[in-house]
Amino acid sequence: MRIKDKIDFQPKLFALMNNYSRERFVGDLLAGIIVGIVALPLAIAFGIASGVSPEKGLITAFIGGFIVSFLGGSNVQIGGPTGAFIVIVYGIIQNFGLQGLAIATVMAGVMLVVMGALRLGTIIRFIPYPIVVGFTSGIALTIFTTQMKDLFGLNVGEMPADFISKWIVYFDNFHTLHLYPLLVGLLSIVIIVYTPRVSKKIPGSLVAIIVMTLVVYLMRTFLDIQSVQTIGDLFTIKASLPGPEPITFNMETINRLLPSAFTIAMLGAIESLLSATVADGVTGDRHHSNTELIAQGAANIVAPIFGGIPVTGAIARTMTNINNGGRTPVAGLVHAVVLLLILLFLGPLTRHIPMSCLAGVLIVVSYNMSEWRTFRSLLKNPRSDVSVLLVTFFLTVIFDLTIAIEIGLLIAMFLFMRRVMETTSVSVTRDFIDLSVESEASHEDEKLVIPEGVEVYEIDGPFFFGIANKFDGVMQSLGDKPRVRIIRMRKVPFMDSTGLHNLESLLRLSQAEGIHLILSGVNLKVRGVLTKAGFDGKIGEENICSNINEALEKASGRV
Questions:
Q1: N or C: less crowded end of the chain, CB within 10 Å?
Q2: How many CB atoms within 10 Å of residue 275?
Q3: DSSP 241
Q4: For residues 99 and 117, what is the distance between their CA atoms, to the nearest angstrom?
């Protein structure tokens, strides 16, 4: 078997190059330039908010964006740092430093590649919606919380990592508020909100940064107002191509960072595939989910080597790409090159950007991420969905994203199993079977009489570990023992090892009590499970019947 038959890896860029035209290139070029400009303030803001220097955000957007477009399974996906990672990245840096972040990101990249190689892309898209909304809204609130210090210009030293402690520090130090940073931040928010009413082509965040940087520069130069901190007051910008940085792996660090790496991988997979799916709905295209995961994995393996942070698909930048005419991965490549050129030639100018302006940018990002209308509407859903939503939200806010995703998924799985169990039934029939609603019958008699001494048990639903106990309970509650038991499995779509174990136990118990066991209506998938486990040899091939008529005829010869 060839490798391409084993791994679903079909980069869109390579498939499109045969029919690529000059007209298409012009459209992609213009879209890529605009997306690169839009990505500039976001990359800087996400880098700083994550706890790294601003050029690390630009490096991530350049390297990650280039690899995602070069190898990805979507025509229009734009990759880079996103707000969703701010919380987890900041926490990792606080606990394990930049080296720990690099290790966790590479591990996450490997996980993403493995997910894509195992064709798990389609499965990841079915993660329950309340979980996605819960941790997205939780992340939004956390990002909003992290920006209060810069927005109000508070004189606070090193901030605590957890949500509640941050607000305690804010309230304790609110008397250190400075008016000018607050005005800069609020004006930045106003500019971002109202710019689309003037022009939807120009990103409001870029306009806010240009205007407020100029205003603050004039304030500091001519009015000697120094209370508004800028990027240059806190960071040194390196306007040069990044070199590779060594990453040292050891088992102790890997074990400690495994939960965080898993969170980065799951969050990256969910966000990138969600972004690609939204893009498909607009363009009418269809992305390759497994290829996209492999590309995201490759980006997260390479970016940390050059000091970058985690990479994923960015919905806002992807939609900007589409709205400005981008239709192939070339637009994403152009966007990456634009960011590199900005880093190399305009990097030193970023030192003048006020921190409170970036706080305004991130506050708008957090508002857009919050999905508060969706959150409110989900509160009207069934209690199980509401519980998953609220638990994921509060765990994200109060503790961290790693715990929130793990426990949220665990709760969702338990609730799913409970729902399956509630819709799966086990029934017993002794007198007759109504064939008017049967699809497996070989003739159209209205009723099929069950011989005396024969009992028919029907399992309606998947026969897995949750239902196996229910089946055991039905069997144990019966009084008189029949001479023949027919197990109807026509409505059993699949069976797991626990269900198989229960059947084997029932067979042994029946044989010990002199009761003959017959299976009826077993589909090919379940039949394959029985055959692979050797159950057909134990019960006898002749006792696995295709329909109930055949099973009852065989049972008649045993009573």
A1: N
A2: 26
A3: P
A4: 27
- Of the candidates 233, 231, 225, 234, the one whose C-alpha atom is nearest the C-alpha of residue 180 is 225
**Structure tokens, 55:** 């050029």
CB atoms within 10 A of CB 490: 18
In order of their start, the domains of the chain are 22-151+158-415 (no CATH), 425-556 (3.30.750.24)
pLDDT in tens, 369-427: 888 899 999 999 888 889 889 998 999 898 877 788 778 778 877 777 777 777 777 77
Look at the chain and count its residues.
Answer: 559
pLDDT in tens, 141-175: 988 999 999 999 999 877 887 889 899 999 999 99
Enter the tokens of residue 12: 């869109």
Spell 427-462 as b/e; 16+ CB within 10 A means b.
eebeeebebeebebeeeeeeebebeebbbbbbbebb
Rounded CA-CA distance 473/426 in Å is 10
Strands 516-520 and 544-545 come out as parallel
Closest CA to 100 of 279, 321, 260: 260
Tokens of 313: 């698909």
Are the beta carbons of 41 and 361 closer than 8 angstroms? yes
Q: Which two tokens stand for residue 191?
A: 């500019």
Type and span of the H or E element at 491: strand 484-491
Token code pair at residue 344: 């190399």
Note whether 203 and 37 are within 8 A (CB). Answer: yes
Burial (Cβ within 10 Å: 0-12, 13-18, ≥19) of residue 425? middle
Provide the token pair at 547: 């329909």
For residue 218, report the phi and psi dihedrals to the nearest 5 degrees: -65, -40
